Amino acid sequence: MKSLILTTAALALTAGMGMADTVRLGTEGAYPPYNFLNDNGEVDGFERELGDELCKRAELTCEWVTNDWDSIIPNLTSGNYDAIIAGMSITAEREELVDFTQGYTQPSPSAYAGMSEGVDVKTAVVAAQASTIQSAHVASTGATLVEFATPDETVAAVQSGEVDAVLSDKDFLIPIVAETELMFLEEVRLGGGIGMAFRESDDELRGKFDAAIASMKEDGSLNDMLDKWEIEGKF
Amino acid sequence: MRLHGKRPIIFSYCSDPSLLEGLKWLSCYLTTGKHMGFYVSFGTVLLLLAITAPAALAFGFGAAMLSRARLAPVSWIGKGYIAAVRGVPDIAFFLFFVIALDQGIEWLLHQARCPDWSDPIRQGNDFVVCDIAKMPLGTSPQWIHETYGFALAVLTFAIVFGAFAGNVLYGAMSSVPRAQIETAEAYGMTRRQAFWRILVPQMWVYALPGLSNLWMVLIKATPLLFLLGVEDIVYWARELGGSKMARFTDYPHGDWRMWYFLVLLVFYLAFTRVSEVVLARITLKLSHGQATVGGEAQRKAA
Question: How many CB atoms lie within 10 A of CB A48?
Answer without folding.
Answer: 21
